[in-house]
Amino acid sequence: MKKNILNPIVISCICFLCLYGLVFSSCNKALPGATPIIYPPVNDVGTSIGDLINTDTSFSFFKAAAEKTGQLAQLSDSNNIFTVFLPNNNAFRASGIPSIDVVNALPATTIGAIVGYSIIPGQQFLSTDIPVATTTVPNEQLPSSLTIGALPGTPLPLKLSTFPSRTTTVFYDNNIPVVQPDMKMRNGVVHLTATLVAPPSQLLKDAIYGNPNLSYFEAAIARADSGSTGLNKLDSLLGYGVTNMTVLVPNNAAFQTLIYGIAFQSYLSARPTPYTAMDSMYADATGKGAVAAGPALLSTNSVTTAQLKGILAYHFLATDQGAGFQPNIRVFSNNFATTPGVFYTTLVNTLIPPTMQPGVMAQASFTGPFVSGLQFRGAGTFPPGGAPYSNVANALISSPANPFFDNIAVNGVFYVIDKVLLPQ
């Protein structure tokens, strides 16, 4: 019997603000000079990481979690070495867990996954071991102690990875700032995080398709995949656990605006010019009728498969692998550029010569070390004729539990945006 790649117990764990990548590398962009909280340096080579957690009451929440799941003992083992992205009690509270009672009330699988994801076994990574991000520098990919299954076709354990990155002033684990790095202990190093860095709960496909506000995107994927097979299908990529992607997902209102415009323009294109008031009235009625048809309209000839394939390909970030662009880049909100005019190539670059398509323009803004705004710009405008990269799509917060914009899944991260980006 074929073994399931993903452990359903782990995949059902609570999802906070984290992400995972395995086979492919993820890329950072230049980050701002945000200022983290600075604590006095710690260099206590006589104390193990487990001893620190046991004796320092500021880690009592984590201690309760690690004791509940039997994971604390390993951190006291001086025969092993660890890198631990450790949340203190304030980090638990900032993540919506106010007390030890709440920690103890959570299922053991949930708590065990949170603790396991914070521990990098067998390696000691200081903040200075992580290169400072420049124009394009990969995140450092570190396998955690959390196993979710086996690599396809092998007995090798499949580990959730965590992705630290660094600027000249801020050290991040995934998209979470480290408020005190490089607490050197006897059996490794501890980095104190601002909030929990917890494992994801779903694949991109499940997270996106399970959101009723993204039903047009799901319908567009189905139509664009017509005639394709295997991993040539966008749907297959979204459901493939061993990958590492960044996807921009227009919400339903964004698709409705596009559909209205296509239907409106299509009606007028069949009318002689100059247009009359009656022409505009009927064009408006045609556009509204197209929107009223709902996502099912995307399965009709009102929009062609080629149109949707090109539009959707523009929403998957990709990098040049020499044999074509591949969706192998995971970009957290804090990895996007803070200055205008920085482009991120997409799967459209596999459809047309890259020199003709610089990609999607993206820009992040920060409040302290946290992202407070994120915008994307596409080359095309609707109706045609506008200035390139003038159509701004804002990344939307899709749930109150996701204040940092990143919608994180096992196989990547996605951003809900309020406009459909057009490649040309």
Parts with pLDDT < 50 across at least 5 consecutive residues: 1-40
**Rounded to an integer, what's the Rg over CA atoms?**
23 Å
| Through-space gap between termini | 48 Å
What is the percentage of strand-forming residues? 15-25%
The best one-word shape is elongated
With helices defined by DSSP (H or I, 4 residues minimum), what is the helix count? 12
Work out the count of structural domains. 2
**Quaternary structure classification:** single chain
Q: What portion of residues is helical?
A: 25-40%
Number of strands: 20
- What structural class should be given to the helix and strand makeup? alpha+beta
Q: What is the average per-residue confidence, as pLDDT, rounded to a whole number?
A: 83
Main beta-sheet annotation: 7 strands, mixed
What does this protein look like?
- By secondary structure, the chain is an alpha+beta fold.
- It folds into 2 domains: 186 residues, FAS1 domain; 214 residues, no CATH class.
- 25% of the residues lie in helices and 23% in strands.
- It has 12 helices and 20 strands.
- Strands 2, 3, 4, 8, 9, 10 and 11 form a 7-stranded mixed sheet that branches. Strands 12, 15, 16, 17, 18, 19 and 20 form a 7-stranded mixed sheet that branches. Strands 1-5 form a two-stranded antiparallel ribbon.
- A hairpin with a 2-residue loop joins β19 and β20.
- The longest helix is centred in the middle third of the chain and has 18 residues.
- The protein is elongated, with a radius of gyration of 23 Å.
- The N terminus is likely disordered.
Jot down its keywords.
single chain; 424 residues; alpha+beta; FAS1 domain; 7-stranded mixed β-sheet; 25% helix; disordered N terminus
